[in-house]
Amino acid sequence: MARHRKYQADEEPDPQLDISSLIDVCFLLLIYFIVATTIQKKEVDVPLALPAAAPSDADMPDIEPLFIKIDANGAIYAGAGSSQQMLDTDVDSRAVPMLSDLLRLYVAGANSGDKKPLVQMWVDGGANQQRVIDVLNALVGANISSVTFTDLVD
Q: Which of 26, 38, 39, 116 has its CA 20 to 30 A from that of 14?
């Protein structure tokens, strides 16, 4: 009677993965994303002169303050009451060109009368923080440092 022998195949080694080329690809992708990214403008230090306690009559400015309002949708308004005008409404854009133009005119008018420009801001509680920073950057760009945040709205 013939014996049956079991045939055993040679053991194959475990498959291995060479990752040296993957490291090169990772570094190339890292370099690509670093070069391709856009760098946002750095927030500037805003030198604001916030008011102290209740101002006395001697401390009152000689110029009418400019009132700026930011609503919950991010729209920026200038003026108060019936003279209020809508300026910049595009919340996706960090530039506020209409407000910047108005601020330049306001500063030029204040400087012509040797007065210090003063801005009062009212910000809706639901407004985006970035929109407030955009307005503050526009104030710094116009060299306005006297800013008051108010809770009175017209």
A: 26
In a domain, 55, yes or no: no
CATH (domain of 95) = 3.30.420.270
CB atoms within 10 A of CB 127: 20
Residue 43 lies in a domain: no
> Using an 8 Å Cβ cutoff, are 116 and 104 in contact?
no
The string of DSSP codes covering 55-79 is PPGGG--SSPPEEEEE-TT--EEES
Amino acid at the residue 93? S
Is the entire prediction scored with pTM above 0.90?
Answer: no
Q: Is the pLDDT of residue 93 over 90?
A: no
Count of structural domains within the chain: 1
pLDDT tens per residue across span 77-87? 888 778 888 88
Q: Is residue 19 part of a domain?
A: no
Domain hosting 133: range is 60-149
Whole-number Å distance between alpha carbons of 116 and 125: 29
Distance, CA of 115 to chain centre: 30
